[in-house]
Design a protein that fits this description.
Layout lengths: L5 E9 L3 E8 L4 E8 L6 H17 L8 E6 L5 E6 L3 E2 H4 L8 H20 L12 E3 L5 E3 L4 H12 L11 H4 L6 H17 L12 H10 L12 H10 L11 H14 L7 E4 L5 E4 L81 H28 L1
Antiparallel strand pairs: 1-2, 2-3, 3-5, 4-5, 6-7, 7-8, 9-10
Helix pairs in contact: 1-4, 3-6, 3-9, 8-9
Length: 398
């Protein structure tokens, strides 16, 4: 391919919406990447939106973790072309064949890309297509986010010709449902990308080249499976599950918040927290370094007030409890007898203290205790038996 102003043009990659070339720019004599967009079916309005977004990108592409955009051109056939910083590869290259990236390195990549997203969000830009293929590796070994604004063209082409333009594996539910996107949408995609770096597969895929319809169904319906591993802190797993919530409001609400959570987990692991850069639209910026502040504890629920203590009776006084016995079927009245105590009034109970079966006193005044009465009856029975035995013996002997 021949392009004016460039030499040694060589294709190094292609996708559904663009082809990337490696070339040497003859003027400044530097190696660059040329991304030529295949957008023949995209509407003029979408192209104009893309042009405005790439102009805005030029103001933030000096961020150390955003691929530098040198300029935008239009080829004679009308295709837009981006002249970009040439990188040595991508995170996707490291993940081929189900490979993983060590947790410490993966978290460092995600923190730095989080700073790049925060910078873009402050400039009023959403990425819309964060994925391993769009996290490149610069010639200095730093992660750099690429393809800002391309997702807008992809969505336009999808609506026009029915092509599924974005990466299904990392798309948030609101993108699949055509709802409003926010910074939390990019946070979801970054968390999904980090999940794949740690697990070797996307969160909702079962095997390579799986039908996108099955993946979409899981993204919309299934919860995220927690991650387990020797170097995967439980709080990291919990953060990824929360950052990939179906509801945008339940995720970290900014890329900076997500990056700070990752840095706090690095500190919990005993690792030096990764620093990241944030730039503002006015050109000011700062590098976030040092150990992050500890996570604010969740507010504890207020304890219920304790009941007021019950007043204890004065020492030496008899404590008297009165209660009404539950209603029970009334027995037939007993036959008249000479016992004056056997009247209905004497069946009302007033308990002066709790008694056990061994220290109960009879209800009738003057009556002997049941235990004494039982011993007396037993004595009479035994004596009768002895008398009978003596009499029988005497009869037999005579």
């Amino acid at each position: 391919m021949s392009i004016d102003g460039f030499e040694a043009v060589e294709e190094i990659g292609s996708g559904g919406f663009s082809t990337v070339y490696r070339a040497r720019e003859t003027g400044p004599n530097r190696l660059v990447a040329l991304k030529v967009l295949s957008v023949a079916d995209v509407t003029p309005h979408a192209l104009e939106s893309f042009r405005r977004e790439t102009v805005a990108l030029g103001a933030v592409s000096t961020h150390p973790n955003i691929v530098t955009l040198y300029r935008q051109e239009v080829l004679p056939d009308g295709r837009p072309m981006l002249v970009l910083e040439l990188c040595s590869g991508s995170v996707a290259n490291q993940l081929r064949g189900g490979n993983t990236i060590a947790p410490r390195e993966a978290l460092a990549i995600a923190v730095k890309v989080g700073g790049a997203l925060e910078t873009a969000h402050r400039a009023g830009m959403l990425h819309r297509d964060v994925k391993p293929q769009n996290i490149l590796v610069t010639m200095f070994g730093e992660p750099a986010l690429a393809d800002f604004g391309v997702a807008r063209l992809q969505a336009s082409a999808q609506a026009t010709v029915g092509v599924f333009g974005f990466t299904t594996l990392h798309a948030p539910p609101e993108l699949l449902e055509g709802k409003q996107l926010s910074a939390a949408s990019d946070v979801y995609e970054l968390a999904s990308t980090l999940y794949q770096m740690l697990a070797g597969r996307a969160a909702f895929t079962s095997f390579d080249n799986e039908n996108p319809a099955s993946i979409i169904l899981r993204i919309l319906r299934d919860p995220v499976a927690p991650l387990f591993g020797e170097d995967i802190h439980p709080e990291l797993s919990d953060l990824l599950v929360r950052a990939m919530s179906k509801l945008q409001d339940e995720r970290p609400q900014s890329a900076a918040e997500f990056a700070d959570e990752l840095r706090r987990i690095e500190a919990l692991q005993g690792w030096e927290p990764t620093g990241y850069w944030v730039r503002n639209p006015d050109g000011s910026g700062e590098q976030i370094t040092g150990r992050p502040a500890p996570k604010a504890p969740r507010p504890e629920p207020e304890p219920e007030p304790e009941p007021a203590p019950r007043a204890e009776p004065a020492s030496g006084t008899e404590q008297r409890y009165e209660y009404e016995m539950p209603a029970a079927p009334q027995p037939e009245p007993p036959a008249p007898s000479g016992d004056a105590w056997a009247t209905p009034a004497n069946f009302e109970h007033t308990v002066q203290h709790e008694r056990t079966p061994w220290d109960q006193t009879p209800d009738r005044p003057g009556a002997e205790p049941p235990a004494t009465r039982d011993r007396r009856v037993l004595t009479i029975v035994v004596a009768a038996i002895v008398v009978v035995v003596v009499i029988a013996t005497y009869v037999l002997l005579n």
